[in-house]
Amino acid sequence: MSSDDEDFMSDTLSDDEYDNDSMGMLGETADESEYEEENDQFLEDTKFDKPQKKAYEVDFRALSANDVKSEQDKQINEVSSILGRSSEQCAILLRHFKWQKERLIEIYMDGPEQVLEESGLGQDYNISPRLEKVAGFECGICCDDEPGLDTYSMKCDHRYCASCYRQYLESKIKEEGEAARIQCPSEGCARIVDSKTIKLLVSSDAWYRYEELLNRTYVDDKQNLRWCPAPECEYAVDCPIRQNELHKVVPTVVCNCSHRFCFGCGLHDHQPCPCSLVKKWLKKCEDDSETANWISAHTKECPKCVSTIEKNGGCNHMTCRKCKHEFCWVCMGPWNEHGTSWYNCNRYEEKSGSEARDNQAKSRASLERYLHYYNRYANHDHSAKLDKDLYSKTEKKMTMLQSTSGMSWIEVQYLNQASAVLQECRQTLKWTYAFAFYLERNNNTYIFEDNQKDLEMAVEQLSELFEKPPDQLAQSKKEMMDKTAYVKSRRGILLEDTAVGLKNERWSFTVDV
Amino acid sequence: MSLIAEKRLQKEFKKMLTGELPPGIKLAEANESDVMKPWSMDISLLHNNALYAGKTYRLSFKFNRQYPIEPPEVKFITATDREIPMHPHIYSNGVICLDLLSAGVGGGWSPVQSVETVCVSIQSMLEGNNINQRPEGDDQFVYGPQRRIKDINFVYDDPTV
User: Which of A190, A206, A345, A506 has its CA at a distance of 20 to 30 angstroms from the CA of residue A253?
Assistant: First the structure.
């Protein structure tokens, strides 16, 4: 297994393999092929009322490349029957409007000419493109001027020889992966090369690639679709959650390849933390904003020229190297106010120094607060990384257990379940710390922290059971199964609570979500 | 497929020998028997721009087999009496940050461009500049890991220079 895959393999066993609830959910959504703009709200509301669906789960459906294609065709046919134009033209129109069907129809009804012109479908589009031989022609690309040369131009009348045109298009398609936005080869001409032209000119494999790329733009353009980010995975996931709802819901979806990811941002599952907080948190952990925090906790600034100073010895009478300002390190006030009490600052209540001290105390507290959350976050992150070979370890254990205790393969499956639940909970726990970091302190937060504590304790206990040697493992089967179920329910409770809170905007955060 | 590139460069070469190049632009070196080898072009400025007055600069053009579908690799080189011009979009190793020189998203290359038109564009790019400095991060760029010009992703954010 290459290292790239590890992250994705760690959750090979996702909900739907051992959790019947989510199986039901998958099946239930499978027949809803389309989320229309108008009835989005309606769908969502009714779904939330169904008892079997939990507040932290969202509707989703994985689509194969063929599904994407047929969905596309369905929309094209629909528009085609409304506008009375060929499906090919409608495809171009829809792409031009980024698949916003209603907008296209509305604007088209207002004035078809302009829409057609803008999307590259001139009035006489129905004339098939063809190659022409033009007397006295010299190709602007290869400078060939042989008589009888096949040439081509679109309506913009930028004419080039057919072979140059073909090379240009194929290089755009194959090298640069462009499809819906290939422009005329002429400098500064913004005319989009239409698919008829492309079909006429390029080789069959380039045409195949072109169609594939067009398929991709469909998923990129549609708000309710997203490619599964797992390497080599060709599925797209359909989920009705909009970008502007992400502060209210954390849409975790599971692709058919079993990769769990967030539909909102494409990152690995990060429930219960909303996407914007995840982004802020990752940035905070990654960039050296904490270096800055260290600086402010361990250094002071010259009260006059604000140079940063670290005191590493000597008395409290500071003389700034830069501006020669003399001040007291203890109270930050000017040194000359110290009068006779030199080298022993007792001017604590003096206002000139109190402000500087306040700033210092604040940043120190904020650093400690951050470290509290970060250490726990990192701890679970680290444990999750150690768990990444848990699957193979589990398998080994299961085989061992079968030989030592005489249990059958089916009977040892509980280990597998425990391992999967463990991994899932670590992932959740990790993000609860990022979530908690941004929470304002209030009663809701206390409830959240209690839930977090319960889950964490349960996870550690299960983890401990799991690490037992095989001979003891057999005896603790019941205990382990109970614990697994308990841990799973704790996770459900925590996620339910946070999801409902997000939906009702009950949480108050220290930053904007 | 190298045919197009060769044919095209032959034509450009002949045109340069017979026809007139725009003022300030000269062919310094090209190999007639193998036009695919790198070319050198000398350019000097027409107007009195204090920054570049009286100087001539040398550009090197490297072509790949996809030329002119793909842009040539163009950069300033040093030689006797030839130095790298000061310009906020020209690095001290001669690499030029110009949208014209890259194809793809955001690039301005079109197969209709030629050695001559690239020279004219660079000439006018110098002509319009009065800032005597290198691009930001020049040191890092020049002394950092060496990349092929093709692999550099410039962001063309400054239409004024």
Answer: A506
